[in-house]
Amino acid sequence: MTVTVRFLLNGKQRIARAVEPTRTVLQHLRVHERALGTKEGCAEGDCGACTVALGRPNGEGGFDFRAVNSCILLTAEIDGCAITSVEGLADAEDRPHPAQAKLVEHHGSQCGYCTPGIAMSLFAHEREGRGGALDDIHQTLSGNLCRCTGYRPIIDAAKDMVACGRSVDFDARERQWREALDALIAEGAGDKAQIDIAGYEVPTELKDLDRLLAKHPEARLLAGGTDLGVAVAKRAENPGPLISLSRLNALKVIEEGEAGVVIGAGATYEKALPVLDRHFPAFADIVRRIGSRQVRNLATIGGNICNASPIGDSAPCLLALNAEVVLRSVEGRRMVPLDKFFIAYRKTALKPGEYLEAIHVPYMREGDVFRAYKLSKRYDQDISTVSAAFVLRMSDSKIAAARAAFGGMAATPARAVALEKALVGATLERSAELAAQLGRDFKPLSDFRGSATYRLAAGSGLVERLLAEVANKDVPTEVWAL
Amino acid sequence: MNVISTSSKDGLRAKGGVGQSIAHESANRHVRGSAIYVDDMPETEGLLHAWVILSDRAHAKITTLDLSAVKVAPGVVCVCTADDIPGANDVAPILSNEPLLAKNVVEYWGQAISIIAAETEAQARAAASLAVIEYENLPALLTIDAALEAKSLVIKPMVMVRGDVDGAFARVGHMLEGEVRAGGQDHFYLETHVAQAEPAEEDEMRVISSTQHPSEVQHIVCRLLGAPYAAITVEVRRMGGGFGGKESQASQIAGMAAVLARLSRRPVRLRLSRDVDMMMTGKRHDVLGRFKLGFDDTGRIEAADIVIAIRAGNVPDLSGPVLQRALCHVDNAYYLPNVRVNGYACKTHTVSNTAFRGFGGPQGMVVAEAMIAHVAAKLGKTLDEVRAVNYYGGEGRDTTPYGQRVTDNNMPRILKEVEESASIAARREANAAFNASSPIVKKGLALFPLKFGISFNMPTLNQAGALIHVYTDGSVHLNQGGTEMGQGLYLKVAQVVAESFQIDIEHVRVSSTRTDKVPNTSATAASAGSDLNGMAALAAAETIKARMRDVAAAKFGVAVDEVIFANGRIYGGQKSLSFAELAKCCWLERVSLSAAGFYKTPDIHFDAETCTGEPFYYFTYGVCAAEAAIDTLTGENRILRADIIEDVGASLNPVIDIGQIEGAFIQGMGWLTMEELWWDKDGRLKTHAPSTYKIPTSRDIPVDFRVKLLGDAPNAKPTIFRSKAIGEPPFMLALACFLALQDAVASVVGAEKALRLEAPATPEAILRALGRVE
């Protein structure tokens, strides 16, 4: 079971044959290309030493370059794309890209092992046209661990790189590369016909996906792959037959409709962010803390929901926002409220042959208060110990209606029904007693992220934070606001 | 020997001499991905890849070890258990009986049982999953407390005593007892352990190892193979981070590769996956400190009876020296007139802990600062008030518990500079006002003064060698015994050589560290890399320079002392030659342009039995003032500002030193605030990858981060160009972050209750200290 993958590597045409579906881009680069600048630091998409830029053709004759973790990206998934690795940054005269030059100038490397990945993240920052805002730089670096420098010189290098403006040289190269890729595609890259053996299917129409799943309900859907890639790379699991959603553009659509936002199940977090910022800013702020930028460039909200992890960070927001999911199969569609979707630990309402097509998130009513919080040991790129989202409707400085949902408190993300009841009719007075209602809703577990007692205490603390925030905007309620 | 910087004839200095801020020698290669690490080496013909089979019990008898399916798995070439090791199954760095592969009994979850070599890494890994291992569980001791109760130790207890402790307790006005704990820490070097072994003729072998200690890898490989040291060459160009984790532990990985290479007669590469690395190899020792203190009304400590217990894990490894350094730093910057310290290295059924930046120093100082904090809380004083009456200095108050005089005390000066430049008094007032009006978020501020002893505690280890060749084109090949792990040692030593020859640093090429070029080296550790190897390289350079000077004097027709090396040229009378021309002249005159240099640190001695002597050539000092904020509802916390002034003597390279300070400080902050090693009740480490073990990211660094080198403070001792060591000391400056968090907690629950805060100060630990979590 192998596939043929056509792509560009640093501008050069590549046709990789006999690629096993589980071969990661990192393995391909290091073992098959002997392109050794890209490093493995963790094989789970957490350290960023393997960062490369994945370029998908854009409408302007170039690429939409995004930083991704090559250690958990399957090579089959880069068919029809341009990969830039650290070896591809220097120009024809071997002059370094500004990302590299500034890292040297600011002494941003010590042992150097994380450095290629950091150069690639900065490169993607530059290609995306991002600015020098500190928060944006932290987001860019959130998926790159450095154990030597303490980051200060890397942050300075990023600021300086941005200040130097866009690399005109690379703009020109992008156009050349695009021609090379287009020529390769004309020869058949990205064509389904290139997928030569069963076991890795790449449907381009939803109706094909319907039929495929009806025939192979055991097949696993591969969306962003940031979970499946970890299983393959870190745990050497064989995922069995895969259906890649990479070419199902219908699944990637995000619509701002009459009643709400419809998020296609295959839309990545980063693509969803502008829409979320417009309508559900607190959700967007949570999304910016999910994984790293590398992860968010691939991972999908749909994947996060279907994963049904009790600590998936999208779920509490979507539960509080009263989202519904569209489930689709060869037999048609059905709508399910999200709080009926999570059945048990990592079990969903999806029937065999059925998949998540889209998530409907209704707009909030004028005056509704929406807040979402995430607690973890580390601010960026950490998995929640507890997460929570609240939608409150106020009436005469009392709470008239409340939806509250939590992650990390039970076997599934879940609404806190007792708390919701207690909130209705309450004032915004800070009340530990009210917050303690959480204990009636949840009996959390203890693990390495936090003890059961911590989860309850901190979860209650989030209720208190909510009340304090809504009551008085002048008092700091988070250390991150300082 | 003239070790003072040669002032150049025309006022110009060679580029890249000492004191200049120049970039890391590999910086350009780092950013281009062209710096070669062990796993990036060419795959030589027939190279095999290895994998390790680990124990999944903390303490158990192996009742079945069936590897038959492993042996016949696709691609497998060699499978090795303890019985197959050609020499001794022992990787102990100091003592003995520390097995490479468990035999009959496993003593920690993650212990290596068997190693496999196959044609590909995937095949080796797949084969490993076919092993059938059955166990019979044995009782496991997993914590310091359990081990102390069972009197389970890896080495005999250590005692350090000075003065009349019991008599002093009888005289003092106040007494208290206290306890403090701090967790362990994974090194999380970005490059996991890796080695490649290439068999050569007969018993000869070349081992390329990501190691801080090539000589020890050489010795242990020889022990495992039963070969003489001269048969094995160990080489390392660079590591992707070390931090102590590749001091003694690297010999396990290199040893595994070497054994498999010997058995298969093929080259073998072993690169640990992140998970295997974190399960199998040692970490920083977690620590429990208990103390009884006697003190007066001012808070001056008159008597201290201290217990320091560290979790050693299943074997001693380096726990003895780590404990020794903890004992030698439990005074930190404070004079303890009557003191008894009992040290215990606890044997537990967890991975054997090892060297980690600071090497016991941080653990000792955690206890020192807890003592200060307890006294302050008891008397209702500030930390700084209690410190002020306890600092070294004044009549008869300048000798450490182990008997070394503190003669170079820069602490008063640094403290004053930090207090002024960081506006401590004004910010304390501002924070108090903030806290009064902020019910949820609270701020804290604390200083931490650091005194750290430089030199290996064991005097023998304080020696180094270097080998320099000058070629006839004027280029210089430099080889020295220290290893490069990112700290800039190669660069600093090259700067020393460039300074000595007065040539631009681009002419000095540093080669990989190899046991066949510089033998019998010490680990690159104890912050001593540039102190030791810089001096050895200087000695070698000066030897060659003296010969060149003779040739030049004859050529110029001047006296030897009239020959001057300056800015790439050699001058005498009215004549001059370029360095390359003089090198060529030397060759023509048949003068050797190659020399070895050697250095041993003078004036140090230490009796490990009695814990007395003068183990440190000098002390280094630093002060950090940190400001922190906590969320009293969730325990989330953040370091808002850190001001650091660190004493590095006359810096060999200020930007490298700043980088060491910033990096060490953030690593220390990670240790004390977020990095949590968490074992389940069966002794399984559940945080063995970055998804679960969180080290700081860019957002976690202080919002306002100010680092300065102490100005105009050349080392009082004649070290290499009067510089001071830098690798470890700033790690401990992060204690200021912990103390600032504790101060913030104290603003809510009071100073006494805030003492409950344990490191790492995770959100949960903060809520616990606030009394919001039982």
Order of strands, widest sheet of chain A: 2-1-5-3-4
Q: Compute the separation of the termini of chain B in Å.
A: 65 Å
Supply the number of structural domains of chain A. Answer: 3
The number of helical runs of chain B is: 21
CATH-assigned homologous superfamily of the largest domain in chain A: Beta-grasp domain
Specify which chain pair forms the largest interface.
A-B, 87 and 92 residues
Poorly predicted tracts of residues of chain B = 1-10
Tell me the CATH architecture of the largest domain in chain B.
2-Layer Sandwich
CATH architecture of the largest domain in chain A: Roll
How large a portion of the residues of chain A is in β-strands, by DSSP E?
Answer: 15-25%
Unreliable spans of chain A are 193-197
- Give the termini separation of chain A: 54 Å
- The dominant shape of chain A is globular
Kindly name the structural category of chain A.
Answer: alpha+beta
* Total beta strands of chain A: 19
